[in-house]
Amino acid sequence: MNKILSILLIGIGVVIGVNYFACEKAEESFEAAVASLKDTKNIKVLESSYDKGFFSSNANLKFEFYGQESMMDKNIKLGLQSTVQHSILSLFSGFKIHTDVKILDDDMAKILKDVLISDSLAKVETTVKIDKSQKSVVKFTDIDFKEGEESFKSKALSISFDTQDEVKLNFLEFAYEDLDLNMLVVEEGIENPVKFSSKNGKFSIEYENGIDLDNIDKFEIFPPQKGKYSIESLNFSGYEVSMSFNDLKSEDSAKFVGNDTKIADCAGVVTFKNLVVNNAKIKDVKLNASLKNVDIDAVNKINNFANNEQENNALIAQFFNKAGKFDVDELSFKNESGSSKIESNLHISSTGSLKDDLSNISETLVLNGKVQIDGTLSKFFEKNENIADLDALFNEIGLLKKVGEKSVCDLKFDNKEGDIIANDTLKIFENAPALVLNIAPYLF
Q1: How many whole angstroms separate alpha carbon 172 and alpha carbon 205?
Q2: Is the pTM here over 0.85, yes or no?
């Protein structure tokens, strides 16, 4: 399976990285791209040709990956066969390019013979306009692979991307109709079957000002940007954990604060229709959260996991000291029958004088939030008859209090006590061991 995944990853890299047609100078752009490939580490150009026609031209490129970069025990040969449609109308609608990506190595072709439905790894449809902007859709061939107890299937897997000036990415989308993976992971002699399946997923992100293609693999924010994600269904099981959900929808955004290009506000909303974790079922899940006054440099460094603990602590302090704020305006969900709902919110900030080592966090932290339940815990967990005892205990110790028809827990951080206080009564940190001992029997 590693060989199959390696070939697919290399194919994705080739298709996204090789933009060798631009505007009315298609042949010149092709030759320039070939020259660039010749100077690229771990790639050897084997053959290239460009046959120019009146209304269309044909371009062929064959090259080889070699060395450690190929992630394989031998070199991989790939071929790109393209047809460029060009006429006077192309000056207005753009040049249409149809590309077929194929494995040329006989041994690799044999490996893929029973995996791919056709002999093509992917097909690419590209439109290049006179201003050098480009729209491309990479449609990967469906996969049906099985070896022993392991298998991988994909249907209608695609990547779409828009670029400007050949070096700026404006839009990126990953989509699929079906993904199905079965793996057997062996750790310390113990076999762990892992199963994953998902239907109709789509993930897209749009950059208003475009980003350099070199940054495409970085977990960073580049305001102004918008993201949109959806999954019809997903199922996972493995390591004694099972999880499934359906109808996931998510939208997020990042924008500069005023005219300051170093500070941004980020916000996102995620919803699930149904969510099941180890047979615990909830429905109508909604999360609405935001980061305000984000120090872009600090957050980007944290996101790339390139720092040690000391550096990360200093970056967290940098975020909060520039008026950074984390808000969960809503986290809500209903029980399986829909008869009861839990709603919560949480707001975290700082007084602005946090030290780089976070040693004074208890003195500067500002935290408050609320959890409220329609009726009681017993009503929410209506199928668990034993939950009534826990419900009574929480009310007795002050973790919950009755407010009208709801059970409520108000939370705030007490800087003098260095603890989160529930309902002005219960110290959460101080009583955490006892709370865990009392709650554990109801969870496991």
Answers
A1: 6
A2: no
